[in-house]
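Next comes one such specimen:
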Amino acid sequence: MVVTVLVMIFAAVHAFRALLLSEQADLELLLLFAFIPARYDASVLAGGSVPGGMAADIWTFVTYAFIHGDVVHLAINAVWFLAFGSAVARRFGPRRFIGFFALTAAAGAATHLALHAGTFVPMVGASAAISGCMAAAIRFVFQMGGPLSVFRRGDASAYRVPAIGLLAALRDPRILAFLGVWFGLNLFLGFGSLSLAGAHQPIAWEAHIGGFLAGLLAFSAFDPKPHSDAIE
């Protein structure tokens, strides 16, 4: 349910922007809630400021995740979020999941800031948080009796199996294959020319990686279930 509600919020925000706001009002919304690296660089602003002040300096680390470039961007993120976010939400519960979503979104923004300091191009989209959910999911979905196990259980207990330790996960061939494909795709997005259809903007692939690494490393802090004996 928490994932469904978040997707509904994503859709409502996009509908509000597309149907009710003028171009100028939409720009003002982006300045207030999108993540803009220039906000944190006084030398670039040259004595000026980005609307929102110190409060927006904080909240845009998360609020950018609720804004999407167009319907294609929204639809792609919704599909991936429903697939991976649902599995993690079933395991964490809604409160832990919302905290995890915020953390991984913020980690993606921080990574983007570190590599694009001073730029005025706004970053939007939930992809960093979704990447964090992907990283969290691989810690348990392949486990015996887990959601993707050959010997899968047919009920909610599949989401409560002991998680694999981080070091053990990095030795699992299935997880390594997933990591290889995922990182390879993001590097291709970064160094190639691929972009989302209709978005007319480059993909913030560095934010994806930041969110993914945060999800991988922070999983144990949010996970309420027992872990395997493998080293965390």
Remarks:
- The mean pLDDT is 86.
